[in-house]
Specification:
12% of the residues lie in helices and 51% in strands. It has 2 helices and 13 strands. A hairpin with a 2-residue loop joins strand 6 and strand 7.
């Protein structure tokens, strides 16, 4: 009976994604610290003509330098199992995060730059609020550049 109850609890949140967002804009990045280690932080959003500049809809990646190099361009955190990579979003006044109480994950694929294209990130995630409200995050390949200037 307990196994059936556990299975139902796992399935219910994954079937009730209230919100899906598509990230398409790199807002910037900076050096940071994560658990006392040197890290990189990146911020993304969705460019929309209907949103005013006062809207604070954004998603954030933070990863340690060492983890970024060791994964060879694929960052992954499933249910908070990776302490060197975090992903969260603040969207429409709600804070979404990875959790070990709900089925959540974040995956980022980093494509290195070449002579014609800047470095890009492809992002997929399923996050949750403290009250169990789910968010699905998707993106295409987002160039890490600001205007015509390449960054990172």
């Amino acid at each position: 009976m307990n196994a059936l109850r556990f299975a139902i609890l796992l399935l219910i949140p994954s079937m009730s994604f209230a919100t899906t967002i598509e990230l398409d804009t790199y807002l910037g990045g900076d050096q940071s610290k994560l658990a006392g280690k040197s890290a990189l932080a990146f911020t993304f959003s969705h460019q929309s003509k209907t949103l005013s500049t006062s809207d604070n809809n954004s998603c954030n990646i933070i990863t340690t330098d060492k983890y970024l190099r060791s994964t060879k361009g694929r960052l992954e955190n499933i249910n908070l199992t990776e302490p060197n990579f975090f992903f969260d979003c603040e969207w429409e006044g709600k804070y979404y995060m990875l959790s070990n109480r709900y089925p959540t994950y974040a995956e980022v694929i980093i494509k290195p730059p070449d002579e014609h294209f800047p470095m890009t990130m492809h992002i997929e995630a399923k996050l949750v609020t403290l009250t169990g409200e789910m968010l699905e995050v998707i993106s295409g390949d987002i160039p890490l550049k600001s205007g015509n200037k390449r960054v990172w």
